[in-house]
Amino acid sequence: MDARTDGLDERAQRVLEFERAWWGHSGAKELRIRSEFGWTAARYYQVLNAVIDTDVAVRYDPVLVGRLLEVRDDRAQRRRTRRAGADGAV
Asked: Where are the domains of the chain?
């Protein structure tokens, strides 16, 4: 284990490596999640979100983790905006 992976377990490494792949559509990715990890998509994203919140994941792949954090934050912002619009609807 090198300094970059120190503290990053094998499961976290596998998840980050999996995220590097380009997926044409979500259905293909969900099928691969099931076959690679044996998890539902919901479980995969729970694990992924926990992994990208760690400093060791940032050290392992700062560009990938930064992109994933940005995507997650953008989606959360869109959900908040939609909810705020729905709350004010007549």
From this structure: 10-87
